[in-house]
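Appendix B. Chain record.
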Amino acid sequence: MRSRYLGEPATRPQFVTRRSVGLLSSAFLALSLAGCVPSNGPLTAEVLGSAANRGAQTYAQRPLTFDAVDVDQEVAAIAAEFWPGDLQSAFGVGSGSVNPTLGVGDTLEITIFEAGPDGLFSTTENRSSTLTVTVQPDGSASIPYVGSFRFNGKTLEGARREIVSRLEGRAVEPDVILTLTENSSRVVSVNGSVGSPSPVPLGLRGDRLMEVLAKAGGPSVPSHDAIVRLTRGGVSREVPLQAILNNPGENIYAQPGDQIFVSARPRMFSVLGSAGRSARLPFETDELNVIEAASLAGGAQISLADPQGYFVFRYEYPSVVEALLGAGRIAQLKQEGMLPDRQGRYPIVYRFDLSDASSYLVGQKFMMRDGDVLYVARHRSADFLKFISLITSSTSFAGQVAAPL
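Structure tokens predicted for this chain:
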């Protein structure tokens, strides 16, 4: 029996062979592309699955354990109530010095009164004398007819009474007024980005941090970019200035010897995934909610983004995590390998479903924090569209290969 192509032009079998090779190449290329469609990050389900399916992994396969929380009104309220700052927990609020003590370097004005006109400190024209003394390095100062008097460690009233006592029997019914004119022993050092870096004397009633900063000319940088570092007794803590402004508990009383340093450190957040652009962006405002953050990033790429997959990745403070998850869940996560960072914060992911109209209102109550990562997940259909595009381009290439010579 003769072959179908027997007697046909010799070019026919060659054309069929090249076409077959081209189609096979296209098929193999499409199959290989199916497993490597380019993406800009995990899908919504993959993010949530990373938090929910940790039990199937070994610890070695689980480099980071975290949980994911859907943001509603309650979650937004819990997160919004917390202001990052630990001055109060580290140093306590303190109190105004009701009876501050005197110390080395203080300058005092001493006015001594006498009842008679011819006393040690009085004349017929003036019944009093005023002298100024400075407390010396040994803590004392000399007063006529009293001698070396130790001021260091005494209150103004205590020193006044003791001076009167030591003048009795020498002066005529003496009385004393003691005034602190220059406070050099109770000062706070203020440096950095302030109007007038200098030692700031503390008032007799005591000054809080914001009052001390005001005496130093106030911050010279915008409040939302200012960081305040307080060092006391070898312990240092730093907080955003905005945290002190918004949380009165962080505006603690300054103490003699405190060192305050104000630095400019713009708060930043990162945007990744299917947002309008991937970038690291500054807050440029005192407060920035997640809706505003998404807007700064150019919104979402309509053809790629999953409206149910807006995520904020954050290391959250323990008090917030406990309020959100409960002590039992936290204990479970720790057992599974969840570890805090150097500041004691735990990893958590907040999810916003912007396919729900109410999320746009809830999102306005959820404030971004310095270092947050806003991730916009891609929609599943985006992978399919990319895959079809790749198949189309590969088929076009295969068609060129299979074209007759």
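Further analysis of this model is presented in Appendix C.
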